[in-house]
Amino acid sequence: MTLWFIVYLMKYEKLTAKKKLLDEYRSLPYALLSNLDEWFRVELTYTSNAIEGNTLGRRETALVIEKGLTIGGKSLLEHMEAVNHARALDWVKEQVKRRPHSLTEEDILHIHYLIMKGVDDLNAGRYRVTPVRISGSAVVLPNPRKVPDLMNGLAKWLKLATGLHPVKLAAEAHYRLVTIHPFTDGNGRTARLLMNMILLMSGYPAAIIRKRDRLAYIDSLEKAQLGGSKDAYMKIVARAADRSLDIYLKAAKGETDTGDTEGSLLKIGELAKLVNQRNSTIRHWTKEGLLEVAEITDAGYQLYSQEVVERIKLINEFKSHRFTLREIREKILRDSPD
Questions:
Q1: Looking at the chain, which residues constitute the CATH 1.10.1660.10 domain(s)?
Q2: pLDDT tens digit string along 295-311?
Q3: Catalytic one of 85, 112, 174, 181
Q4: What is the DSSP string of 294-316?
Q5: Contact criterion met (CB below 8 Å) for 272 and 281
Q6: How far is 313 from 296, CA to CA, in rounded Å?
Q7: Which fold has domain 3-252?
Q8: What pLDDT digit, counting tens, does each position of 237-272 carry?
Q9: Does the annotation mark 181 as catalytic?
Q10: Which of 17, 99, 180, 304 is the most buried (most CB within 10 A)?
């Protein structure tokens, strides 16, 4: 496979091609569709809540939302967050026959109501009336008096944004909602459900922002909100959509899939050994923005995803063509989904 073909595959056309291929398998057996639906219901609930700090594990989340069981040592709040997210997702899936341009403020408020019902009834389904800040972030959020007008603007934008690729539309809607930050709490979960509602309405599977992507996901949002590029954020969403398409396609083809969206993370030494590079080289490429850190441990160690291995192969091929690191970074940013 040539370098330029690899670069081409990184574009949104790759997602469109996979979606068209999946459309050819639409008459999948009911048992298979039901199994996939149940798996995504648990995974989306587990990951979305985990990003916000919920400590229920994947299997614990499944027991709570599928069996109605309680988990020892876990708070009532965490149980309610799991149940509420699953119910909100069920409502979202009931809207799939609609189109993204039909979405309204009331739909977004209803998602938030379902997420926060019983958790914060006073604010469930209501815009915030007080200033809020994101802990540890320099982002300045809109004044609460501006929220109704900003949300009205978001609804109008959704009605008119008919020319965007569905994945880009979903990602942009998510970004705009969390940037308005219209609620006292539950903004992230509401935004991810809005994003996935748009994907499902467009015939795509829901995109899972993995727990291990939390740091990169939050950092990419903050970078864009502070006036920087949205590239890194858009890539995270596009990759999430791509992984979900792969899960469905493998199932449709009868191929075995572990269903493990987390995968194993690599320490810098493990990654360096795997790709035959020095630790110092990996650190330098990370500092230069060529590689993305998936997670940072409590002890401060940087961990990398398996996907970085392919990125390093691409970097090495660019280097063999005598491109500088700056040129390589620009090419990677330019040729990745945006």
A1: 266-335
A2: 776 577 888 888 788 88
A3: 181
A4: -EE-TT--EEE-THHHHHHHHHH
A5: yes
A6: 23
A7: Fic-like fold (1.10.3290)
A8: 999 999 999 999 999 888 755 445 555 788 999 999
A9: yes
A10: 304
